[in-house]
Amino acid sequence: MPSHTEPGASAALDTPLIPDQRRESMLRQLRRHKVLSVHQLTVMFDCSHMTVRRDIAVLEQAGLVYSVPGGVRIASQLNSEPSHQSKALIEQPQKQAIAVCAAAFLRAGMTAYLDAGTTTLTLVPHILALSDMTVVTNDFPIVQELAEATHVNVIHTGGMLDHANRSGVGGLAAATLRHIAVDVAFISASSWDLRRGVTTPSAPKVEVKQAAMAAAAQTVLLATSSKYGTFGLYKVARLEQFDHVISDEGLTEAAAVGIREAGVDLTIAKGE
User: Fold this and answer.
1) pTM
2) How many whole angstroms separate alpha carbon 164 and alpha carbon 146?
3) Is pLDDT at 6 greater than 60 in this prediction?
C-alpha cells in the first residue's frame, strides 16, 4: 500500500489527492518555502500546469496565497516602511491611474482628508482644479504642494513627526481629526490583503488612520497592487470597512474576485 507522505520538491505523491487535500498540502509547502514556482508544484503533486494554476487561483481568491510571475508566494510580513523619498521614485504610472479614479469622488466645496503617502500626493493636481476645497492631511509634502494654492483651505493635523515618511502621527494628530468632519477620506496603505485588511508596521500610524476613517462620511482606500499580500504587525481596518477600494492593473484577477466576493467595492485603475 503506497504511503501518503507530504510531497517534496524531488518526488510526487504515489496516490493522487483530491483538490482540497492538494491545496492544503500546497499551503503547507508554501509556509515552509515561502515561494514556489508553478513547475515545482507540478512535480510535487504530479499534476498539470493548468491544475496548479487553478489551485493557485482558488487559494488566491481566499486571500491565502499571492501570485508572482511564474509561481506563487505566501503572505510576507513588512517589518518597516520605506521612506517617502524611496516611495516617490516608484510606480508613478500606477499611482497616477489610481488618482484619476479617486478624483471621481471629489466635488467642488468638499472637505477631503489625504492620508500621508505618495499615492495620495498624486491627488493634489485634481484638487487644485476644483474651487472652495478644504484639505485635511497629516502629510507635509502635500501641505508643501498646496502652500501656494490660496484657493484651497489647508489643515495639517500636527502630531509627532515621522521623519522617514514626512508626516504627523500619534495621538495628537488623531485628536485633531476627532474635531473635524470630512466628506471623504483617502487612506493609504503600506500593506494590505483580504485576510488581514490594511495593516502597518508603525504603531503611531494606526490611531491617525482610524481617526480619519471615523471622521469621514465616505472612506476610500488607495493601495497599489505591489503592496497586496504583505502585512504589518498592527491592524488598521478590514477591507470591508472601506466604502471603496482602488488599486491598479497589477492586482491579479483571482485576488480581485476574492475581494469582491467578500463584499468590497473594488475599482481597478487602468493605465494609459
Assistant:
1) 0.86
2) 21
3) no
